[in-house]
């Protein structure tokens, strides 16, 4: 599996219509931005499992999330086609 990452300031994408490069051109609302961020939660948890003595990164937008990002049998299914949620502006 590979994972790619890019960065846009939240204020640059919130309520902005995307360019439609990776998926249909839609306006990026809070829900879509949060959903796209879930892959970061899984990546952080995977690194914590691999390097338990390391202080894990704290991604603030997910800091109060009630979602369990630990690896489960259905995690790959949750990550399938995550790239279709890329925020292209």
Question: What would your notes on this structure say?
Answer:
This protein is mainly alpha-helical. It has one domain. Helix content is 34%, strand content 0%. It has helices at residues 10-13, 30-50, 75-79. The two termini are 25 Å apart.
The total number of structural domains is 1
The low-confidence parts are none
Structural class: mainly alpha
- C-alpha Rg (nearest Å): 14 Å
Give me the number of helical elements: 3
Largest sheet: none
Helix content: 25-40%
Strand percentage lies at under 5%
Key terms:
89 residues, mainly alpha
Write the layout of secondary structure elements.
Elements: H1 10-13, H2 30-50, H3 75-79
How would you summarize what this structure contains?
The chain has 89 residues and is mainly alpha-helical.
């Amino acid at each position: 599996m590979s994972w790619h990452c890019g960065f846009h300031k939240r204020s640059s994408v919130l309520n902005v219509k995307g360019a439609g490069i990776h998926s249909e051109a839609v306006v990026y609302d809070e829900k879509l931005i949060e959903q796209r961020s879930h892959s970061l939660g899984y990546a952080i948890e995977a690194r914590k499992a691999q390097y338990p003595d390391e202080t894990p990164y704290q991604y603030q937008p997910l800091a109060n999330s009630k979602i369990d990002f630990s690896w489960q049998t259905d995690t790959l299914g949750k990550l399938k086609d995550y790239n279709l949620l890329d925020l292209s502006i």
